[in-house]
C-alpha cells in the first residue's frame, strides 16, 4: 500500500495534480502504480520536495513508463559531439539520458564545470517580438511542442523535469499577439501545458471525425528543416514564408525513418484520445480517402485551426516552479511550451529526461499501424555531403 497523496489542481482542462509523501530515490511497486495512474489521469504530475533525487533515480522513474527503451528522446542529435547544435543543453556525464537546461553561469553541477545555460527567448524564434522596452513585463509562449525527434525515433511517453534552482519574483503578462487580445498572467519562467484531450473534446463533430481518420507526416530531419523558419506569435507553429531548408540542404534522408503518426493518441489508462500534433514539424496530412494535403501553408492552417482553441488562456496550465519539484508530464497527451525571459544573472538549473519510445503511440483502431511505417517518397539531395554538413551546423534548440 502506497502512502503517496495525489491532490488534483482545480483546472478547467483537468491538467495537473500534486503528489506528496514520496521519495523518488526509494519507490515501492505500490508507489509506482499510484504515480503511473496519477500521471495518465492528470497529464502533469508534480512530485514535491524531491531536491535530493539523483539523476539516476530520475532516469529510472522516467524509463519505468517504457521499460524497453533506454536512449534519450532526441537520440544522437543531442550527444556531446554535436553540442554545436544545442549549445544550451548539456548532458550529465554520469547519466547521459538526463540533460541540464536553464539560465546563467554555473560553476559546477553533476560533473559539468563552468557551464553557461541560456533560457530561450521568443525573439530568436518568432517572426515578430515583444518590443525591447516591454520585454521584462510582457512575454509569449516560446514554442508549443511535443518532446520528440520526430524522425527515426518515436515520441517519448513521459518527460521528467526537475527544478534544481529557480529564480523567484516577478510575474509577466503573456500575450498571444494574434487578433484575439488573449493574454495570461504567468509566473516568471513558467512551463505552460495544454491538454490534447481537452483540445480534442472541444472540436466540432466534423473536426473530430477528421482528426480520428487523418495521419500526420512529419518533415525529415525536422529541426534542421525548420531552422530558418519563424514562429507565429502564439508559438503554435510556423509562419509559411518559404524559409524551410530544401531537401538538397538536409542531411541524407532515409525514407523508412520518416514518421507518420495518427492525429489522435490514446491514453493507456483512461482510454481517451488526445489531439497530438507537433505544429512546427508537421509536413503533410494523409486523409481517410487516400488523398494527401502537401501544400505547407494549407497544412499549417488546418492544424492551427484545430489546435488554437485548445491553448485558450483558460485551458492552459502554467506551473509555478519551486525548487525540488519533479514534474512528470504525459508527452503523448499534452503539448507544452517554455515561457518568459530571464536576465543573464538569474540562475536557473533544471534536469530533463525523456526516452524515445519503443513503439508508436496508439491511435484510433480504424487506423492501420502498419501504414505509418511505410516508406513515403524519395528525397534526393542534389548537393554532396558538404551541404548536409553545413546544415547540421545551424543551431536549433530541441525545446
Ligand atoms: Fe520540451
Automatic annotation (TrEMBL):
Annotated ranges, domain TauD/TfdA-like: 12-353
Keyword terms of this UniProt record: Dioxygenase, Iron, Metal-binding, Oxidoreductase
Superkingdom of source: Eukaryota
Family: Belongs to the TfdA dioxygenase family.
Cofactor(s) named in the record: Fe(2+)
UniProt KW Iron keyword: yes
Source organism (scientific name): Didymella exigua CBS 183.55
InterPro entries linked: TauD-like_sf, TauD/TfdA-like, TfdA_dioxygenase
Protein name: Clavaminate synthase-like protein
GO molecular function: dioxygenase activity; metal ion binding
Amino acid at each position: 500500500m502506497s502512502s503517496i497523496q495525489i491532490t488534483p489542481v482545480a483546472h478547467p482542462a483537468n491538467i495537473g495534480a500534486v503528489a506528496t509523501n514520496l521519495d523518488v530515490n526509494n519507490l515501492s511497486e505500490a508507489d509506482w502504480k499510484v504515480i503511473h495512474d496519477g500521471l495518465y489521469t492528470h497529464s502533469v504530475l508534480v512530485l514535491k520536495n524531491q531536491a535530493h533525487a539523483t539523476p539516476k533515480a530520475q532516469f529510472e522513474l522516467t524509463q519505468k513508463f517504457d521499460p524497453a527503451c533506454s536512449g534519450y528522446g532526441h537520440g544522437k542529435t543531442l550527444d556531446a559531439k554535436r553540442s554545436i547544435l544545442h549549445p544550451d543543453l548539456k548532458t550529465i556525464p554520469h547519466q547521459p539520458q538526463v540533460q541540464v537546461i536553464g539560465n546563467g553561469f554555473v560553476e559546477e553541477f553533476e560533473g559539468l564545470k563552468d557551464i553557461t545555460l541560456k533560457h530561450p527567448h521568443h525573439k530568436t524564434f518568432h517572426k515578430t517580438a515583444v518590443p525591447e522596452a516591454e520585454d521584462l513585463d510582457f512575454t509569449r509562449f516560446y514554442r508549443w511542442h511535443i518532446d520528440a525527434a520526430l524522425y527515426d525515433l518515436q515520441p517519448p511517453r513521459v518527460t521528467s523535469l526537475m527544478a534544481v534552482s529557480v529564480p523567484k519574483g516577478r510575474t509577466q503578462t503573456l500575450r498571444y499577439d494574434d487578433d484575439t487580445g488573449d493574454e495570461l498572467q504567468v509566473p516568471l519562467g513558467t512551463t505552460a501545458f495544454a491538454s490534447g484531450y481537452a483540445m480534442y473534446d472541444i472540436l466540432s463533430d466534423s473536426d473530430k471525425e477528421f482528426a480520428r481518420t487523418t495521419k500526420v507526416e512529419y518533415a525529415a530531419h525536422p529541426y534542421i528543416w525548420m531552422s530558418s523558419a519563424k514562429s507565429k506569435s502564439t508559438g503554435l507553429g510556423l509562419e509559411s514564408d518559404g524559409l524551410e531548408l530544401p531537401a538538397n540542404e538536409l542531411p541524407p534522408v532515409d525514407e523508412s525513418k520518416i514518421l507518420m503518426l495518427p492525429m489522435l493518441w490514446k491514453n493507456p489508462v483512461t482510454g481517451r484520445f488526445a489531439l497530438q500534433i507537433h505544429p512546427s514539424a508537421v509536413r503533410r496530412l494523409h486523409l481517410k480517402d487516400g488523398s494527401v494535403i502537401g501544400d505547407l501553408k494549407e497544412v499549417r492552417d488546418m492544424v492551427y485551426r484545430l489546435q488554437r482553441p485548445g491553448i485558450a488562456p483558460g485551458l492552459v496550465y502554467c506551473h509555478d516552479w519551486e525548487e525540488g519539484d519533479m514534474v512528470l508530464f504525459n508527452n503523448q497527451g499534452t503539448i507544452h511550451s517554455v515561457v518568459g525571459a530571464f536576465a543573464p544573472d538569474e540562475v536557473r538549473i533544471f534536469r530533463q529526461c525523456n526516452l524515445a519510445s519503443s513503439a508508436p503511440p496508439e491511435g484510433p483502431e480504424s487506423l492501420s499501424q502498419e501504414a505509418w511505417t511505410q516508406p513515403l517518397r524519395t528525397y534526393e539531395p542534389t548537393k554532396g555531403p558538404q551541404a548536409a554538413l553545413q546544415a547540421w551546423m545551424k543551431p536549433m534548440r530541441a525545446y
